[in-house]
Amino acid sequence: MTEFQNSHPSGKIIRVIVALSLINISGMSAMSLFAEGGPAGPFGTTLTLLLCASNLVIAALWLLRPFPGRLGVIAFTVYADIGVAAALAVLDLRNALLGCVVFAVIGAFATFFVSPRWVVAHLIFAASVVSTFAFLLYLRGDMDTITLLVQTDVVLIGIMSVPVTSHIFLTTLSADARSSALDPLTGLLNRRGLDAAISELWPQGRLEGQCAAVIVVDIDKFKAVNDLHGHDEGDKVIRRVADRLFGHLSRYGVLGRTGGEEYLAVVITSRLHIDALIHGIRRALHDSNDAVPVTVSVGAAILYAESPLWTTDSDTVSTATRAADSTMYQAKAAGGNRVVTTLI
To answer: 42 Cβ partners below 8 Å, 6+ apart?
Structure first.
């Protein structure tokens, strides 16, 4: 999330919105010093001014610095919760109860940028603050019970509904986005998912001591598997190969299914390890106990960090993929059940 927000325009927009929200809250808090039911006494006035000043400092940090990491976002959420509770605590209880709706804004922020556990913690804290203000109002006895219950209920609904609705929306949207990038049979990435994943992974292959490889794996004589054992058994073979490929390669890169019985992987590892990783694919896929034994043809195109392809204007990924595909067909033409690599 941090990398995405720092590399896309949306991150700047969000930082500006957060900063403006803090400035707005500081302005409202400062005006409350002159309003009926606002902070009273030296303590209330001093606390409000301190919170206003700290909000302005943090707003400046949001504007001037990159989007914070996980701990920074959590710290900001905790600060916002405690700061709002402290600012409301020095107001008249009626104003404090209604002012708790500000927790809904914090809840929306938490839903997008912290884990669900922190969102739950925020909701529990906010509900506790609202309940405390409502209970103190009840003890004070200057508001009838029905009105107090209605106001408390409205505030709680506002606080709870925003993050809960946002979470449901995000979960649904994320599930749809993931499913659109996955192959339904194997759960591996499809071509669309591979394109997005490779664009983020590929530049790491240029690092000193690292290299990148595009690997194409094709099941040998797969049509015979379907003809002899049926399509259901053929699907099981495709899933089995996918699972074993994932276990062997996923630690080092991304893996997808690009055709009926064809898989494509992009891996980043050291040049000392790359050959062993590629040549270990056949061993990783073999199991003498398989009901339907299969072999694979493997083609790989390897780029060292100093490869001239990194500095050309051509699409390096496409060039490497075509080279890997070509070497896979060489392996297949030589009888299959073998690995052919090329250095580009």
So the answer is: none
Going by C-beta distance under 8 Å and a sequence separation of 6 or more, which residues neighbour residue 115?
none
Distances (CA, A) of 75 to 61, 72, 99, 146, 280: 13, 5, 22, 38, 45
Q: How confident is the model at residue 178 (pLDDT cuts 50, 70, 90)?
A: low
Under the banding of pLDDT at 50, 70 and 90, the label for residue 316 is confident
Tokens of 292: 């339907």
Amino acid in the structure at residue 296: V
Q: What pLDDT was estimated at residue 1?
A: 66
Q: Which residues of 109-119 are buried (b: 16+ CB within 10 A; e: fewer)?
A: bbbebbeeebb
Torsion of CA 118, 119, 120, 125, to 10 degrees: 90
Separation of alpha carbons 89 and 83, rounded Å: 10
C-alpha 245/C-alpha 291 separation (Å) is: 18
Model confidence at 313: pLDDT above 90: no
Q: What is the pTM of this model?
A: 0.57
Kindly give, in sequence order, each residue whose CB lies less than 8 Å from that of residue 41, ignoring residues fewer than 6 positions away.
none
Phi, psi of 304 (to 5 degrees): -75, 165
Q: Measuring CA to CA, which residue among 251, 256, 244, 131 is closest to residue 185?
A: 256
Helix-helix angle 102-113:9-32, to 10 degrees: 160
Calpha distance 171→167 (Å, rounded): 6
The C-alpha atoms of residue 150 and residue 33 are separated, in whole angstroms, by: 28
Average pLDDT over residues 295-313: 85
